[in-house]
Amino acid sequence: MEILHLPFIQNAICAGILAAIACGIMGSLVVVNRSVFMAGGIAHAAYGGVGIAFYFSLPALPCIVAFSLLIAFIMGALTLKRRGRMDTIIGVLWAVGMALGIILVDITPGYNVDLMSFLFGSILAVPRSDVHFMVALVVIIVFLVICFYKDLLSVSYDREFSQVRGVKVVPLHFLFLCLVALAVVMTIRVVGLILVMALFTIAPYLVEKYAGSLAKMMVWSSILNIIFVLSGLFISFRFDLTSGATIILTAALFFIVFESGAWLLRKLAI
After folding, report:
1. CA angle (42 as vertex; 91, 116 as ends), nearest 5
2. pTM recorded for the entire structure
3. How far apart are CA 161 and CA 119, in angstroms?
4. Residue 113 pLDDT exceeds 60
5. What 3-state DSSP class applies to 154?
6. Spatial contact of 45 and 158, defined as CB atoms under 8 Å apart
7. What share of the chain is helix, strand, coil (3-state, %, to 5)?
8. Most buried residue, 28, 44, 134, 172, by most Cβ within 10 Å?
9. Domain total for the chain?
10. What is the pLDDT of residues 147-176, one digit of tens each?
11. What is the average pLDDT score of the chain?
12. C-alpha closest to that of 87 among 35, 44, 159, 47
């Protein structure tokens, strides 16, 4: 319990819980919409924002937010009418964003950036200012999801029928991608760009089979993510391991145990 009095641990716990909530909410929508690859494209392309921030000596998190939203808009515009080519478009944007970030980091004068902290997370180094910024992003995500919940639910399960009913599918398409971008930015500081999709998908996948509604799926996914983050954070601190990777391995271990137990119960029932 003594470690809870350390300021950087308090910041890490707050950042982890906020990211867990954002990933639980948006991860549920990503899984239901079968848009994991699209969310992954935004996550990896967001590294371009890291490069811009360091090259121009700007605050990292706001720059990554702006660049991620730009990528989300471009991706939304290009995939709206070309859903058959969606994987190719996402792959190109994914590669271009990461390449831009790497090049800008390379040519940043007189500054050696620790790439690993953004690629694999640095939750123990999250400053209080970033925690305040993450609180604002969570409030925005929760507020917009509540406001457009019924429409998002309708589009998630039947896009064509929703359009016939008069639901504004195109604006919701862009809103969904922008909210994913915000959630991605929050998670970068916790588990990094490379591992972000695990926190987006593991909990929603486990909960989807048992949740009676999308709202319950979001709530329970957020709770599971909080358990993953806090458990992984404690284990990493106790054994001096990389926090982001430990959080994801904790989630993966929970996934394996849960799925194995469910498979065993089905076999016994047969």
Report:
1. 95
2. 0.89
3. 40
4. no
5. helix
6. no
7. 85, 0, 15
8. 28
9. 1
10. 999 999 988 888 777 877 888 888 998 999
11. 87
12. 35
- Can you give the pLDDT at residue 67? 94
C-alpha 220/C-alpha 56 separation (Å) is 40
The alpha carbon of residue 29 and the mean position of all alpha carbons in its chain are separated, in whole angstroms, by 11
- Looking at residue 119, its pLDDT comes to 76
Task: Judge whether residue 202 has pLDDT over 90.
Answer: yes
User: What pLDDT is stored for residue 83 in this prediction?
Assistant: 63
Torsion of CA 50, 235, 30, 77, to 10 degrees: 0
* Residue 73 CA neighbour count, 13 Å, CB half: 6
Whether 136 has a pLDDT exceeding 70, the answer reads yes
List the structure tokens of 134.
């993450």
Please determine, for residue 261, whether its predicted confidence score (pLDDT) is greater than 80.
yes
130-133, long-range: CB < 8 A, 24+ apart: 130/11, 130/15, 130/61, 130/189, 131/11, 131/14, 131/15, 131/18, 133/61, 133/62
Q: What's the pLDDT at 270?
A: 63
User: Per-residue b/e over 255-266, b at no fewer than 16 CB within 10 Å?
Assistant: beeeeeeeeeee
Residue 222's Cβ-side half-sphere holds a number of Cα atoms within 13 Å equal to: 17
Q: Which domain holds residue 100?
A: 2-269
What does the DSSP 8-state code read for residue 13? H
Closest CA to 62 of 174, 244, 185: 185
CATH code at position 250: 1.10.3470.10
Q: Which two tokens stand for residue 217?
A: 């799926």
| Residue corresponding to tokens 């909410």 | 25
Listed range (36-40, 83-87, 242-246) with the worst mean pLDDT = 83-87
CA–chain centroid gap for 174, Å, is 17
